[in-house]
Amino acid sequence: MKRAWQIAIALTAIMLMGVTVASSTAFAATPSVGKLDLQIYYTVNGVQVAVASSSQLTQVNYTNGIHVSQGSGPNPSFSLDYGSYMITEEPQVVDVPHYGVSIANAMSRIVNISSSTTSLVLNVSLSVTHVVSVTVPGIPSTQSAKLSFETPYNFMFYGPTTVNSSASYNISLPSETILATVDYAGTADTFQVSIGSTQNSLTLNTETETGVFGFISSTDGQSISGSSVIVLNTTSGHYIVNSFTGSSYSIYSNYWPSNDLIVTSNGYMPYIDTSVTPGSLNVALTPFNSSVFYNYSVSANMKTLSLNITYKIGPGTSIPLLPNSSVDSLYFQEKLDSVSSSYMTAFLKSQMLRYTNSTIEIDNYSYALNSSPEVHIYNSSFPGNYFNASVSASYYNSTISPASMKNGYQAKIYAFGTSYTSGALKYYYSYAYDNSSLGLSSSTVPVTSYVRDINVTPVSTSQFVYLNFAKVKSPVLYLTQIKLYWKGLNSTDYLLNTSSHPAFVVPYDYPVSFNVSRVLYNPVTSTYNYLPPANFTWRMKSSIIGYGYNFTYSFTSLNNTLNLTGISNTGNSTSSFFTVYAYNGTPVVNYSVSYNSKYYNATNASSSRSIFVPQGNIIDFSAYNSSLVIPGTPFHTSLLFHWAFTNKSFSSPNATYIFSKPSIAVPNQTANLTVTGITGVSVTIEFLVTVNDTTPPTPVISLTNATGVKISNPVAGSPVNISALKTTDPYFNNTSVFTYKWTFKYPNGTAIPQSSGLYTIVSGNMTNSSSLRVIFDTLNDVIVELNATNPAHVSGYLNRTLTMLVSSPRIVVNSVYIPGKLQEGKSSTIYVNVSNDGTVNAAVFSVTAIINGVVYSHTYVEYLNTTGLYHSRNVSFAFTPRASGNLSVEFMGNNTSEPSFFAKSGAFTTSVVIAPPGYKTPLIIGVIILVIVVIGVVYWRVSARSVKGGGKGQGGIRPKVSLPSDQKKLEKKN
Description:
By secondary structure, the protein is mostly beta strands. The chain is built from five helices and 70 strands. Strands 1, 2, 5, 7, 8, 10, 13 and 16 form an eight-stranded mixed beta sheet that branches. The relative contact order is 0.05.
């Protein structure tokens, strides 16, 4: 109950005192200050038994609820302005000698400070406790609960403590009526029990209670995030406030017949059930708020301050400063407090403090109360569902000097924050002054006006509000802030210049609306503001044509001068003029289209234009040089641009676009440019775009053998079909319309001429055939290049390296050995090492020697295998030189199954010296054994640079071959 009973005691004291207020005669600028000394004792049955503990907390508030100070211990001291205060002792549990654990009950008292020193003794009553064994049998065995005890005035002196049904708990309880709560499984069971002085046990059986439960919603559709459910005993006047989070609740009690149920949530009208039926009860709450108005008024000489407080309280809001406000119902609050007209009169008078330093100050000046407050209560009966009343008083300060405030001052007003009990109680403040030379310059919170009655909007938390006043200055018209509107408005770029006398362009003979709510600048408040309804006057050619901050007019002349007079919120006026041009001109469109340094240009364009652009290129479009000039003026009005392409648009003078498909695939492609003037007249240019194909074909090189079977590489010496028929193009489906060009190249990139003898074109043509039939007479790699050109003259390129395969025997001469000296006319034996480097074994082979142009040929019926045993053999034949000198000797191996050019490619050439007859001249035999690297792995170069040393042959460099043992013996003999 938020110390409700404390306030009740205080208000009772107020009423007994009659709240008489003596008129002040000093009216000092600074309030008189007195010292309050307290002595606090604990009492039992009215007898002092101990001084208060060091933890005893004392609160000091003004009678209107504003907090002043706090202290602790048995002897707190306070310095206070003269006036009435509410002194409150907070409840607590204390251990008092000879009495043990006791409850120091809360208490409040009104004290009047009117002298330099005031001493006061406060007796705080104790509720002495004794140990009681408490059991809670109604809790399910699988659960535990939270147990708490509190006084009827909402002071929780025990718990919440976790308990279960299987144990008893020794708890110190006072010998009086108290409230117990057992909270478990989301439910709250409340018990009102009276403890006897000799009672030593207490049972709280939740099974004997019945419950009320349900959901809480709102009629405004807002979710309920927190609520309170109040159980009010109409007989005893005691009530318990149970708080819930979320939108559901559940309450259990064992004495429903004498209880009322109140369901509340902040900002809503409470739901009241005076005949509770246990069970489900869903409640829908309606938003509700009440108001309290504080109206301050200062005289012209600033010495007199009047205050009027008006209360408009409805049934959904209790009064926070009165007792029992937490019952959340004005009706039940008034009923529990036994409210009457005299009761409320005393309460309202208590709101008027002797000095204003805690409520309002003007430039740090405080005012003193100089008359008894006047109270008017408009209620017809108590208790009731509404409370309407007012209280007024006058304050005075003789020391204030109006001259010191002629240039401005600061008013500091204390504003209460919005209270929730249960509806929203909002506090409104207004400040009125009688000085036309001053105006509000700034405020720390939002206000609804800046002159005369300054209205402060409600604040959420209690705080001081600062209102700063300054000398009134003439307002300024910022005409560039004028906002224009007309039906079909396409842009707000209607302002032509930004001088103090700006110019605007609008449609000719068409209603145009002007809004100047952000034009009148008040240098006092540093804001743009206006004071309706007739705060602006519009003139043209000295004639008044309208009033107000919104003005509509149709202009039928090209050049129009308007004069605007504005009145600020401080009552000062100012005037200025601006120009309006009414012109529905047609834009002059200039454009350019460019790509790759190529341009299309047009000046004053107004028709369609055909353009040709390449596919896939960035095309730059620009209408930047377009214009619209108001005749007879230097003003160019703003223009709106719209470029429209197939799947993209731009709203700027410049645009870029890529046409991704050529016209052969997407005919009739267009681009559109629309240039619109600020007043709505537009020009559209259509570009008929022909997009040239730039997408090359995708060449494909396919290989098949003589029987049409697909192969990866050709067989040397055998026909191979090379085809481009699988070449594709995204826009040409018929490959017969393509042209093809073939090129064969060495691995180093040099073209192989058709006369080289390295390939033979069996069918087809290198320059215009889609297919070729070719025989390659080489074992080296060949690069095939293909250029495919579509009808749009766009070419695609592909190359492929062909590695020659061998599918027959291949007889290769590896080395030649001539033992001894060669002499003209003398027979010698020559040894030749041969191998089969092909892919098929040979059962017979021949070796041919060409010496001085004479052919010596021998056929050997012996196996030459491709690998393993008999892969190579040593053969010999007799040779009788017929002449002396240097001889070139060439040896070739051959098998009838291998291509004819294999013999030449596997040949071995060397040079020998033949001595003349009759001489014993040593023969200089240049024996050079070359290493032949397998054809197809190492490049075969036709030039003479491919052979190093004495032995030469078309087979290239050969591996060194070991001589057989019998050849070595013959060499030693010679």
